[in-house]
Amino acid sequence: MSALQPVRGTRDILPEEMRRQRAVIETAREIAERYGYLEMATPIFEFTEVFKRTLGDTSDIVTKEMYTFSMKEGEQITLRPENTAGVARALMSGGLSQQLPLKFFYAGPMFRHERPQKGRQRQFHQFGAELLGVPKAQGDIELIALGAHILTGLGVYENTSLELNTLGDSDSRTAYRAALVEYFSDHRDDLSGDSRDRLERNPLRILDSKNEGDRKIVAGAPVFGDYLNAESGEFFATVKEGLEALGIAYNLNPRLVRGLDYYCHTAFEFTTDMLGAQSAVLAGGRYDGLVETMGGPATTGVGWAAGIERLSMLMDKEIPAPRPIAVIPVGQASEAVAQPLAHKLRHAGYGIELGFSGNVGKRMKRANKLGARAAVLLGEDELAKQSATIRDLDTGEQELVSLDAVVEYLVRFR
Question: Which UniProt keywords apply (predicted)?
Answer without folding.
Answer: Aminoacyl-tRNA synthetase, ATP-binding, Cytoplasm, Ligase, Nucleotide-binding, Protein biosynthesis
